[in-house]
Amino acid sequence: MDRFGWVPSVGGNISVRLDAERIAITRSGGRKGFLTREGVMVVDLHGASLTEGGRPSAETGLHCQIYRAFPDVGAVLHGHSIAATVLSRVVEGDGIVLSGYEMIKAFAGQTTHEARVVVPLLDNDQDIDRLSGIVAGRLNGPVPGYVLRGHGVYAWGRDADQALMHLEALEFLLDCEFQARKIN
Amino acid sequence: MDRFGWVPSVGGNISVRLDAERIAITRSGGRKGFLTREGVMVVDLHGASLTEGGRPSAETGLHCQIYRAFPDVGAVLHGHSIAATVLSRVVEGDGIVLSGYEMIKAFAGQTTHEARVVVPLLDNDQDIDRLSGIVAGRLNGPVPGYVLRGHGVYAWGRDADQALMHLEALEFLLDCEFQARKIN
Amino acid sequence: MDRFGWVPSVGGNISVRLDAERIAITRSGGRKGFLTREGVMVVDLHGASLTEGGRPSAETGLHCQIYRAFPDVGAVLHGHSIAATVLSRVVEGDGIVLSGYEMIKAFAGQTTHEARVVVPLLDNDQDIDRLSGIVAGRLNGPVPGYVLRGHGVYAWGRDADQALMHLEALEFLLDCEFQARKIN
Amino acid sequence: MDRFGWVPSVGGNISVRLDAERIAITRSGGRKGFLTREGVMVVDLHGASLTEGGRPSAETGLHCQIYRAFPDVGAVLHGHSIAATVLSRVVEGDGIVLSGYEMIKAFAGQTTHEARVVVPLLDNDQDIDRLSGIVAGRLNGPVPGYVLRGHGVYAWGRDADQALMHLEALEFLLDCEFQARKIN
User: Fold this and answer.
1) How high is the pLDDT of residue A184?
2) Measured at the alpha carbon of residue D3, what is the angle toward residues D104 and C39, in degrees to the nearest 5?
3) Residue A3 covered by a domain
4) Which residue, A100, A147, A92, A79, is CA-closest to A119?
């Protein structure tokens, strides 16, 4: 994620499920491209710290929501790309429509580029509980991810490898939509 | 290809001819930038697996078509760049016209930048047999490659090095055309 | 900074506070991505060389100004990004307004993306004393940095790590504003 | 140069002066980012091969012209960037005007960003002798480089390090001009 410029400054969060009750997640602050063991803590599925002295990031709640909703999800990635940030500010409404892209097939269940999929697009909110409530209604679409306006992308998968494949596919498609809007 | 961002997510395929009857090709799925020996299988020139338990990617058929058509081709590369993906969706018709670029000389037989060459541009199709039939009529032009709309680029050469040189030249030229369209 | 393309050619300067009276700073000229021990010299807080034979860069004065103004600043970074350079030439007036970006929270004291912050934007000037005088009136805003028109970005922090986090956040936000202006 | 994408495919040439009569230069073809000892040959200042079996690139003549014109030049770099290629095709006339950029000071003799410098812009030509004749009249301006339309950039310096500093400054400035044209 760092190599692609998706975790600039202190942005982004990475988590992996340890077992049915616990996840490892990056702490608040710190540059994710310089991540060390000390930059990771353990929380339960409701975001309560299981690491002594640990203060979870406010966005830990969004990670936990995904793990609670999908018992087979093993990893959640959250990044801040320029493409997703800018695109999400110019697209109106609550979804980014994608169709005609071969890359759509990177999402499970999509077998043709002719599919029309909608990436959920939600207004950013500092009240994570309120935001989680809105996200809840959008988790079950064909895309294993969503976009927060002016903020970034969440993506998930059964393990870290698949979550990265989903994030890369989503960022690729969002960047295509972003670049297309620069053409006259 | 990974370094340039041309094999995002599970996109892209890479193959090399082993001998007159066999090619080694990347399996379906998997991130090509993390490719290991296990991610490669052997098929015959009609795409039938010669590796126990191997399931070739659907696009193996497009690779095999190129090896059958050109006995001197030793490698085929297929990538998904943002430039080719977006450009191919805004260019109408069945070709991308290039002229006035020194880089055209990277294609065999082109001795001047004043040449006008057309990169074949084909609609994407999930029916690989049908798509192969359409590709068949476009393989013999001056450009050792073609573009699938909303999908990506195929390029080939006598060995992997030359195939990469052709792919890089083609992606450079497509990116120039793409960027030029962003200028008012 | 080199990896992101922010110190092209001989551009940019990097400094770190050694103690209350001295800073280490890159010398004039030289490519910062190839920096060696010989490329660094020591100056006092007024820019006078404490290294035998050393000639400080003209911009050393802007670094010293920041260290004098903020006793808790431990590092100052100055880069030349294409985004900041071009954006600063098309934005009129003396500030670049940012709002609606989650990344704003990377700046101390900003707790919501709804904040509206202004990045100071100053005309470039070869008279560093005169420029320092103008900069002086703009140092105390919420953004730990400023932009010189057609020139680049200054950012600072309590140590080199935090200065880099601030620079990355600022460059990310400037790039978002820059890219947004390319969209029709 | 490879890292920045300036020598795609078989594009670009790199040369270094060995002494008053000889230069080492990259051979025709081959990817410059994979350069080995075998990819380099020695020629005299008129481009005649001093390496047994060596065939100099057609563009060797443009390198030699620069070494003959400037006895203190120790290295010449020629690359193909997308920015320079596309910009050179949309700018009319025989020069690219730069002013208001701090980076102009990277060129010897420029002491202020307020300087207005013109980068020579020449139509590409496969007749290198004819092209050299046109280049001859443009070598003595303030910019240690020039642009061939639809082709790329030449830059030089007293040694390879300085030539790279000049090339980086020139590419930075051309990219700024290119990006500025994408803004509405």
Assistant:
1) 67
2) 55
3) no
4) A147
B5 within a domain of the structure (yes/no): no
Strands, sheet with D95-99, edge to edge from the N-terminal-most edge strand: D40-44, D22-26, D13-17, D75-79, D152-157, D145-148, D116-122, D95-99
Instruction: Tell me which DSSP letter residue A27 carries.
Output: P
Residues D82 and C69: their CA atoms lie apart, in Å, by 43
Amino acid at D36: T
pLDDT-derived band at B184, boundaries 50, 70, 90 = low
Q: Is residue D1 included in any domain, yes or no? A: no
Residue B129 neighbours by CB distance under 10 Å: 9
To the nearest whole angstrom, how far is the Cα of A97 from the nearest Cα of chain C? 18
CB pairs under 8 A between C and D: 69
Q: Which residues on chain B place their C-beta less than 8 Å from a C-beta of chain A?
A: 5, 8-11, 31, 80, 82-83, 85-86, 89-90, 124, 126, 148-152, 178, 181-182, 184
| Host domain of residue C157 | 13-183
3-state secondary structure of B68: helix
Task: Give the residue carrying structure tokens 């760049």.
Answer: B81
What are the angstrom distances between the C-alpha of C109 and each of A54, A125, C72, C105, D4? Answer: 21, 17, 16, 8, 37
Rounded Cα–Cα distance for residues B67 and B49 (Å): 16
pLDDT < 50 regions, chain A: none
Query: Does residue A7 belong to any structural domain of this protein?
Result: no
Interval B19-51: pLDDT, tens = 999 999 999 888 999 999 999 999 999 999 999
Strands (DSSP E) along chain C, which ranges?
13-17, 22-26, 40-44, 75-79, 95-99, 116-122, 145-148, 152-157
Radius of gyration of chain D (CA): 16
ipTM here: 0.96
Closest CA to C85 of D35, B85, D180, B92: D180
Q: How many domains does chain C have?
A: 1
Q: How far apart are CA D163 and CA D13, in angstroms?
A: 13
Q: Is B46 annotated as a binding residue?
A: no
For residue A166, say whether it is annotated as part of any ligand binding site: no
pLDDT tens digit sequence for C92-149: 999 999 999 999 999 988 999 998 999 999 999 999 999 999 999 999 999 999 999 9
CATH of the domain at C25: 3.40.225.10
Nearest CA-CA partner of A167 in B93, B31, B88: B31
| Closest of B183, B163, B176 to residue B84, by C-alpha | B176
Asked if A55 and A49 touch (Cβ cutoff 8 Å), the reply is: yes
Give the residue from B153, B157, B151 showing the smallest Cα distance to B171: B153
Contacting chains of D (3 CB pairs or more, <8 Å) are: B, C
Contacting D with CB below 8 Å, chain B residues are 4, 100-103, 106, 111-114, 161, 164-166, 168-169, 171-172, 175-176, 179-180, 182-184
